[in-house]
Amino acid sequence: MSLNTDLVWFFNTSAYAVAALGGRIYPMGNLPQAGTLPAMTYLRVSNPPEYSHSGRATLIHPRYQLDLWAETSAAVEALNAAVLAALAHWQDVLGQPAIIEEAGADSYEPETKLYRSRIDVTLWYVEA
To answer: Are the C-beta atoms of residues 115 and 106 closer than 8 Å to each other?
Structure first.
């Protein structure tokens, strides 16, 4: 499995986020125009390689931008809380920590009339 696949699986099975997201998780930061809300988009922002004397390490720590989308500010705040609660259990499920770098950077998109909350997170992960 890849980290992107495990990321989607994690949120689709997390007791903290599954009800709030309902499978509405989209890659590459692209929210479908006709998509049901609330939803989350994700984008890998960076993936710095780690090397040891043996070569490239299997423990990676890419940085992701998670954008949460909803039609009201209250709905996006509730989704933000659910996603942060789920991320607090990343280590319990996948064995490595999730380090939240910024949570709660909120905005309103006047063109789409949608509320957005951004979470920047570094996800530690062992590649198979």
So the answer is: yes
Predicted confidence (pLDDT) per residue in 47-76, tens digit: 888 888 888 888 888 899 999 999 999 999
The set of residues, in sequence order, having a beta carbon less than 8 Å from that of 20 and lying 6+ positions away, is 38, 78, 79, 82, 83
CATH number of the structural domain spanning residue 96: 3.30.2000
* Measured distance CA(41)–CA(31) in Å, rounded: 6
Is the backbone peptide bond immediately before 38 cis, with ω within 30 degrees of 0?
yes
SS (H, E, C) 3-31: HHHHHHHHHHHCCCCHHHHCCCEEHHHCC
pLDDT digit string, tens, across residues 5-15: 989 999 999 99
What lies within 8 Å, CB to CB, of 67 at 6+ separation is 29, 31, 40, 41, 42, 43, 116, 117, 118
CA 49, CA 31: separation in Å to the nearest integer? 29
How many domains does the structure of the chain reveal? 1
